[in-house]
Design a protein that fits this description.
Elements: H1 2-40, E1 44-49, E2 69-77, E3 80-87, E4 91-102, E5 106-110, E6 122-127, E7 130-134, H2 137-143, H3 146-154, E8 161-173, H4 179-195, H5 247-250
Antiparallel strand pairs: 1-2, 2-3, 3-4, 4-8, 5-7, 5-8, 6-7
């Protein structure tokens, strides 16, 4: 009986060693392929980075803990920085820097992907095979025009989650994605970044935080309508009702009071 248990233990040990070797070889193979792909695009490569993952907190980044980015590629697209990296066994992420940042977050993901975990983001609706979430539904609704609908239908399934964070636009893909899918991911993140240009920009110093932005929804039901900000009026006019500020424009001036009695006046 003892030799049998000894044999089984030895087999388990050998099997574990083989699986470990296969996993290490797979990781090394992915690193070699990523490095070769980066070289073909003129990008830089480094095996690991613990700094860049701290820049983002939403999308797939909210589902991982304190992990390092593996197989990191750094390059430029149209003068803007782009990163491609792996999050352990979770996902491959492509991040493109935006020239103009925005505080409005738009998250577009496949319907079979779980909804965002953040508490400040709400569901806008479905576009083809994808669901759209945002921290500002009014601004996101303006971004979801015909071009966004076409894009949502045409984007490859390997682009599972697409979202933005201030000065960055990101796409997450399966960690098993191929070189061809990395190329598709670069195209997808560029297209998605262009579609989000209609979002209100981050206010510059000295400007009001509300200027140029739709009113953000805070608390309550996400479907609750939000009052739109009144349009600016021409010089010399106000938004007061006509029976107050502009009443003098539509009525005659009242004559002076005589002997404690007020003379009647007539409208034109």
């Amino acid at each position: 009986m003892v030799p049998l248990w000894f044999t089984l233990s030895a087999l388990c040990f050998v099997g574990a060693a083989v699986l470990l070797y296969v996993d290490l070889d797979k990781r090394r193979g992915l690193g070699r392929r990523r490095k070769s792909w980066a070289k073909s695009h003129g990008f830089d490569f480094e095996p690991e980075s613990t700094e860049i993952v701290d820049r983002w907190k939403r999308g797939v980044m909210s589902t991982v803990g304190d992990v390092a980015a593996k197989n990191v590629v750094l390059g430029q697209i149209r003068g803007e920085a782009v990163y491609i990296f792996d999050l352990e066994d979770v996902a491959t992420v492509i991040a493109l820097h935006r020239k103009v940042g925005t505080n409005v977050v738009v998250d577009v993901r496949l319907k079979d992907i779980k909804e965002p975990r953040e508490s400040d983001i709400w569901l806008l609706g479905a576009i083809g095979p994808r669901m759209v979430y945002s921290t500002n539904l009014d601004a996101a609704r303006r971004a979801c025009d015909r071009r966004m609908v076409t894009f949502a239908h045409a984007a490859p399934d390997c682009a599972e989650i697409m979202w933005n964070e201030q000065h960055w636009t990101l796409v997450s893909m399966p960690v098993t994605s191929t070189r061809a899918q990395w190329d598709e991911g670069l195209l997808v993140v560029r297209q998605f970044n262009d579609l989000l240009r209609v979002l209100p920009p981050i206010p510059q110093p000295g400007q009001s935080g509300v200027s140029g932005q739709a009113i953000a929804r805070r608390g309550g039901s996400p479907s609750r309508p939000v009052a739109a900000r009144p349009a600016e009026l021409p010089a010399g006019r106000t938004d007061a009702p006509p029976n107050r500020g502009d009443v003098g424009r539509y009525t005659q001036q009242r004559p002076p009071v005589r002997n404690g009695r007020q003379s009647p006046h007539y409208q034109r």
